[in-house]
TrEMBL record, chain A:
Signal peptide: none annotated. This is Peptide/nickel transport system substrate-binding protein. Pfam families: SBP_bac_5. One of its GO terms (biological process) is peptide transport. It is found in: Periplasm. Gene3D superfamilies: Dipeptide-binding Protein, Domain 3, Periplasmic binding protein-like II.
UniProtKB/TrEMBL annotation, chain B:
CDD domains: TM_PBP2. Gene3D superfamilies: MetI-like. Belongs to the binding-protein-dependent transport system permease family. InterPro entries: BPD_transp_1_N, MetI-like, MetI-like_sf. This is Peptide/nickel transport system permease protein. The keyword Transmembrane applies.
Length: 523, 311
């Protein structure tokens, strides 16, 4: 056992951090003797890793531009690599790009890793990388990230480098390239085949039935040495929460997502699996239409923001697996999170004061909610309604059907429930949902100072100035914005005891940044 | 008589196909705007409409769709461009397998229990069988499924979910799908058993049964040889109805046991507005209902010669 612990960092010894973590694990093993064996990071090869996910549908597509749910995301991360990986600590790690640099933030040069081959056998070329990015650009592109990449004016090959030119400087372009929609795929005549499963990733697809299951075997030519421990991986779609839990208890699967908070206690009593609760940037929101009365008055919005008990919601709706948010879409896992911002407690008197400022005695609004928005949305809306009554605010909760919620209610009705998966980059989150006129600005909010800062911060290279700008933007959204953000929800997953997990689990996306398949092992 | 019945069935199916097509026509938007989604511009929509033949008049499109469906070509899924025949193929096989498995378990059980409880009418056995079957049918399917998982899966006897692929052997298939089949058996048995019992008891009051009894025949022989053949018509009908249910209505059981059948496909297709898939499955379900009822009618006509020569 000891020799394994010692050899683990040596085998994985690419980064200093890995060695430090290994040393920390050794220390822990020495200090806490009875559980030392459990905590040891003895990574071993072999085994079949089966995952049961509450996502996946027969309509899922292999086209990277259309990926939209956790099933396809994890499946993609199992068979593909990207230019840059987000490490478990949130730092950028070179993947198919060995390095990247830019003098002005406008022209970016990515050096492409040489000697890596696709599952089909051919070596990766710079042209493959260019085609993989261009799949999301151009007039005929149907990709979900077409708008996100619209600032790119040119992508070209230059020797063993790929050069990306932007419309205007953006210091976050490398982060943008970590987006899961941009895997490196083989190109023929400058175009990737969107129906192909060929990639350079840790596992090779054996069979795939959309909405049912995918089977993969280990890629013996995988270029990373300290990754991909399992021999085989099976990813199953199990939509029913109870069926998912049963599959874990009976040993059919080793990992499940979206564990119902109500069943966590029962699962812990069984002693077959452990719960991983990862604090993240994902959050639940109640957007208000800032164009429509009464929400066009910031005092009304502030009154609502002081009229809910955030901590009670975290405890009840999330079962404690989350954290209070101060109406801030930037989460604690973000680089420029404004942790020192003055928090808003549950304060009915203050809410009443803001109502009076708005010239109102009482307020009647309707909040439309469905559990499609987030699990527990209807309950959260009811709690909001109860809390707000003390401040003279009358919130009528209108429960609407899940079916068609995103088409007919969200961004159509003035006050609704919704969620955001959180973004690794501040700019990404703000540009998507808070910039004036953005496609998904679901509160239809517009603020001149905010828009100015958003553009300025994008190209600011001075780290402390940039931090200040992002802090001010968070302050503006929190105190003048048109969204109530009560809480950040953790990523909650349950892992069978037989599976080993790293000390630090990635929080950029669910399931270790979608990379559980590549990073975890059979203990 | 039988030929008329078959012709009626085919005609009915034709009408259903018209209704399905017409209902889809009523939906706002068309295939082109659905396919293009957010990136729909007037030019791309026009180009795609021409490509899909959407500019043709409705009767022409209906005819193309119907003839395609008859030859097994349902077109492609709007969501991921896979041929619908591929999507449906394996799942239809799974659904039919589960339906036949459940029928193979439930029909013999239901008939045996029905005959025995008619034979021993008002006995303890009769009351127990009735109470058990009615109890099982009164519980929602998902509840029965969860109870079975708790008793038979969490204790390690059977798997709690079905993981089958084309290479799974027949024996493994039977083992892995036992719990869903058992759940469905518990759901459908009561209906068939009660019908068998009622039909036989109804006949037991007839004069010719009285005659048989007076001749001194054994009760079992009376039921099997004299009552059952005349009771077959209603029994066949109720069996067919339940078989149709087993093919079309088992979404809940599919979800609980993660069984890749047609029901789940239909739910996915509806929630994603994948109209072409919905149309195809609706047509298959309608065909299953009409076909099974047709078979039941034909069989019950054959078992009752009087119906063949009705004037």
């Amino acid at each position: 056992m000891t020799s394994r612990i010692l050899s683990a960092p040596a085998r994985g010894g690419v980064s200093r951090r890995g060695i430090l973590q290994g040393a920390a694990a050794l220390g822990a093993a020495g200090l806490i003797l009875p559980y030392g064996a459990k905590a040891a990071r003895a990574q071993t090869r072999g085994g079949t890793f089966r995952i049961g996910l509450g996502h996946g549908s027969t309509t899922d597509s292999l086209d990277p531009g259309l990926w939209d749910n956790l099933y396809v995301q994890v499946f993609a991360a199992s068979r593909h690599n990207q230019l840059i990986e987000v490490g478990a600590d949130g730092q950028l790690v070179p993947e198919m790009a060995t390095s990247w640099e830019s003098a002005d933030g406008v022209t970016w040069v990515f050096a492409i890793r040489q000697g890596v081959s696709f599952h089909s056998g051919r070596d990766v070329t710079v042209d493959d990388v260019v085609a993989s990015i261009n799949h999301h650009r151009g007039d005929d592109a149907t990709s979900a990230i077409k708008t996100l990449l619209s600032a790119i004016t040119d992508v070209r090959a230059d020797g063993q480098n790929v050069v990306i030119t932007l419309e205007a400087a953006n210091a976050d372009l490398p982060y943008l390239m970590t987006d899961y929609h941009i895997p490196i795929m083989p190109a023929v005549d400058g175009r990737i085949d969107p129906a192909s499963t060929d990639g350079v990733g840790p596992y090779i697809v054996e069979s795939y039935e959309p909405g049912v299951q995918a089977s993969l075997t280990r890629n013996s030519n995988y270029w990373k040495e300290n990754r991909a421990w399992f021999d085989r991986v099976e990813i199953l779609s199990i939509l029913d929460p109870a069926a998912r839990l049963n599959a874990l208890i009976t040993g059919e699967v080793h990992l499940i997502d979206q564990v119902d908070p109500a069943t966590i206690g029962m699962l812990e009593g069984r002693n077959v699996a452990r719960i991983l609760s990862i604090p993240a940037n994902a959050h639940y929101v109640f957007p208000m239409d800032a164009r429509a009365a009464p929400f066009n008055d910031n005092n009304v919005r502030l009154a609502l923001k002081y009229a809910l008990d955030r901590q009670a919601m975290v405890d009840t709706i999330l079962g404690g697996h989350g954290a209070v948010s101060n109406d801030n879409p930037i989460g604690p896992a973000n680089r420029y999170f404004f942790a020192e911002m003055e928090p808003k407690g549950y304060d009915p008197d203050r809410a009443r004061y803001h109502l009076q400022q708005a010239g109102l005695e009482s307020l009647d609004v309707t909040l439309k909610a469905a559990d499609a928005a987030f699990s527990g949305a209807v309950d959260a809306a009811s709690m909001f309604s109860e809390n707000a009554r003390a401040a003279g605010i009358n919130i009528t909760v209108d429960r609407v059907p899940n079916d068609g919620y995103w088409d007919n209610v969200w961004m159509k009705e003035p006050f609704v429930a919704s969620y955001w998966g959180g973004r690794a980059v501040e700019d990404h989150m703000f540009t998507t949902a808070y910039a004036s006129g953005a496609d998904w600005n679901d509160s239809f909010w517009s603020n001149e100072r905010f828009d100015e800062l958003l553009v300025a911060a994008r190209s600011e290279v001075d780290e402390s100035l940039r931090r200040e700008m992002y802090h001010e933007m968070q302050q503006i959204v929190s105190y003048e914005g048109s969204v109530v953000i009560p809480m950040y929800n953790n990523f909650v997953m349950a892992v069978a005891n037989g599976v080993g997990t790293p000390e630090q689990i990635g929080s950029n996306w669910n399931l270790d940044g979608f990379r559980c398949v590549e990073r975890w092992w059979m203990a | 008589m039988i030929l008329t019945r078959i012709a009626l069935g085919v005609g009915l199916l034709f009408v259903v196909s018209l209704v399905i097509f017409w209902a889809t026509e009523l939906l706002p938007g068309d295939l082109a705007t659905q396919l293009l989604g957010q990136s729909a511009t007037p030019e791309t929509v026009a180009a795609l409409r021409a490509q899909l033949g959407l500019n043709d008049p409705a009767p022409v499109r209906y005819w193309a769709w119907l003839t395609g469906a008859l030859t097994g070509d349902f077109g492609v899924s709007l969501a991921n461009n896979r041929p619908i025949a591929d999507l449906i193929g394996a799942r239809l096989g799974n659904t039919v397998f589960l339906a036949l498995y459940a029928a193979a378990l439930s029909v013999p059980i239901a008939l045996t229990l029905g005959i025995l409880s008619a034979l021993w009418r008002n006995s303890i056995f009769d009351r127990m069988a009735n109470a058990g079957a009615l109890g099982a049918i009164s519980l929602p399917e998902f509840f029965i499924a969860y109870i079975l998982v708790l008793w038979l899966a969490q204790t390690g006897f059977f798997p709690s979910m079905v993981r089958i692929n084309p290479t799974t052997t027949f024996g493994d298939r039977l083992y892995m799908t036992f719990l869903p089949a058992l759940t469905l058996t518990l759901v459908v048995t009561a209906h068939m058993m009660r019908m068998t019992r009622a039909a036989i008891i109804n006949l037991m009051a007839s004069p010719y049964i009285e005659m048989a009894r007076l001749k001194g025949l054994s009760p079992l022989r009376i039921v099997l040889r004299h009552a059952l053949p005349n009771a077959l018509a209603p029994i066949i009908n109720v069996v067919a109805l339940n078989l149709a249910y087993l093919i079309t209505g088992v979404v809940v059981v599919e979800v609980v046991f993660v069984y890749p059948g047609l029901g789940q496909l239909m739910v996915d297709a509806v929630s994603n507005r994948d109209i072409a898939v919905v149309q195809a499955i609706a047509l298959i379900f309608a065909a299953a209902y009409i076909g099974l009822n047709l078979i039941a009618d034909v069989l019950s006509t054959i078992t009752n010669p009087r119906l063949m020569h009705r004037r």
